[in-house]
Amino acid sequence: MSEIIFLEPVFKEMIWGGDKLETSFGYKIPSKNTGECWAIAAHQNGDSRVTNGEYKGKTLSKLWSEHRELFGNLEGDVFPLLIKILDAKTDLSIQVHPDDEYAREKENGSLGKTECWYVLDCDEDTTIIIGHNAKNSDELREMVENGRWNELLREVKIKKGDFFQIDPGCIHAIKGGTVILETQQNSDITYRVYDYGRLSNGKPRELHTEKALDVIKAPFVEGKTDREGVETEDFLREILVSCSFYNVERIDVKKKAEIMQEYKFMNVSVVEGCGTVDGMEIRKGSHFILPFEYGKVVFEGKMELVVSYIM
Ligand code: ZN
Known about the structure:
Elements: E1 5-8, E2 10-18, H1 20-23, E3 34-40, E4 42-43, E5 46-47, E6 49-50, H2 60-66, E7 81-88, E8 94-96, H3 100-106, E9 115-122, E10 127-132, H4 137-145, H5 149-152, E11 153-157, E12 163-166, E13 172-174, E14 178-185, E15 191-194, H6 209-215, E16 228-231, E17 235-242, E18 247-253, E19 256-261, E20 266-277, E21 280-283, E22 287-290, E23 295-309
Antiparallel strand pairs: 1-6, 1-22, 2-3, 3-7, 4-5, 7-14, 8-15, 9-12, 9-14, 10-11, 10-13, 16-17, 17-18, 18-23, 19-23, 20-21, 20-22, 20-23
The structure holds zinc ion.
């Protein structure tokens, strides 16, 4: 039987980052401005390493290129998903991502980016920016060019446990005081739309206004989610979203959850609590992949998991 592949995250310092990846998740972080934990990542800007078993020390990119059988011989140049935890101490710049077609044409064949956010924690009265209030693309351009940001940006209140699907073309940003788990296509293509007029090292950060205006959809349509759950005495299993790029579920293990890994592979992140997976200890901050044909998997303990797979 195939082994569970445990992964070691890569950390990214960001001007907006904080220290919750250490204080809340127990990771050893490079500084008190650590914004991102690339937990399950096979990207040139961050590649997680296997910490156990036969493939110990190899990167996820290497497993993808040399052991495709672990992923059911899925096709593709790159491992399709990227799982991150973000800790925002201050507001992130407001951004938008292209779809596959635009990225292929304008960004050297890169993938576009569809992503989704599960809110792990946030301060009271925190909001996020998601979408805009322009009626059409002419009005959008006019509002951007005249800096009418307060009217343009759609700001919504959030709380722990909220979930958002962010399709390409949707303007978005998390604000200070928010910790999220992000499941996304394996791409790093981002167009910065607005940075609140802030300076970094004395000058404003670059904006990508024209490309952003090319890809922002107007009017805004809310990303579709599929929250639906099954609850027993032992666990709760809830689908958060199913789209053509990924399926994301939340599993709240109260005592024991037995599930089937019957997909090409399954990513698992422990976001709260601790327990075991098939007898091996795991806790908040553990990330691993259940490979192809893994079959039945048993989680025991009291913990919350976010899992993802593609169909
Ligand atoms: Zn994004």
